[in-house]
Amino acid sequence: MLGSEAGGEMIRFDRVVKRFGDNVVLDELDFAVCPGERVTLIGPSGSGKTTILRLLMTLERVDGGTIHVGEECLTHVRRGERLVPADEKHLRKVRRRIGMVFQQFNLFPNMRVLRNVTEAPVHVLGQSAADAERRARELLDMVGLADKVDAFPTQLSGGQQQRVAIARALAMSPDVLLLDEITSALDPELAAEVLDVLRDLARTSDITMLCVTHAMKFARDVSHRVLMFDNGKIIEDKPPADLFERPEQERTRAFLRSVLEEA
Ligand SMILES: Nc1ncnc2c1ncn2[C@@H]1O[C@H](COP(=O)(O)OP(=O)(O)OP(=O)(O)O)[C@@H](O)[C@H]1O
Ligand SMILES: [Mg+2]
User: Fold this and answer.
1) How does pLDDT run across 66-76, given as a tens digit for each residue?
2) Whose CA is nearest to atom 9 of ligand 1?
3) Which GO terms describe its molecular function (predicted)?
């Protein structure tokens, strides 16, 4: 169903199936995230966490089920009485509500920091150069990089590049921010700088966050809910204190042991 079933949720997966060949990565996955909620996905490598985020970014298409973003269906449009897969134009429109930060920064290497942040607001949202620049400077100040606006990405540390990537995502004023292991390519000290920026963001904004991370302390500090994901399904869904201290499933306990040993 379109619209009416979305019922105040910011993200909703209904029986979502995603396959790569014979590999069923998401197996009729259901879950929802409310506006303003911060949800962390954890689970073993290859379990489909990135796939969930890529489906939301429309970098992948579903093989079954539907995804809603707010009241709008992302994956399908209604044609007469039928739901048919959404076309590019519809995907682009709904995707505008979502921003994503990747593990590998993905900044535009030939553009200075300021332009990295203003490029999409100007060219995609049609903001004036002056408005986009004002907002970009505010955001770069917020992530602690006011003095780097004229640098090129290669002149920055990994942690600084990742903070630019966060500012760039926020410049599009998304309702939802997706974060995929954004600190795993960074040394601990640089990772801490990036996580501090997100802690501040969590404290000062009501943006909805869906995050994949191995940084368990961070997950615990900022998440309202942690979802343990295994074999295409969510096997445990709890507030972080419960999930980390009283995991019910043996699979969750084994996973947490392995992550903590790594740390
Ligand atoms: N483009 C693709 N083509 C084929 N198989 C893919 C593709 N993308 C992902 N997969 C497969 O889908 C499964 C889930 O991958 P995904 O990247 O979502 O896992 P993940 O939970 O993010 O793992 P990690 O913790 O290692 O990042 C894996 O088995 C992977 O090999
Ligand atoms: Mg992944």
Assistant:
1) 999 999 999 99
2) 51
3) ABC-type amino acid transporter activity; ATP binding; ATP hydrolysis activity
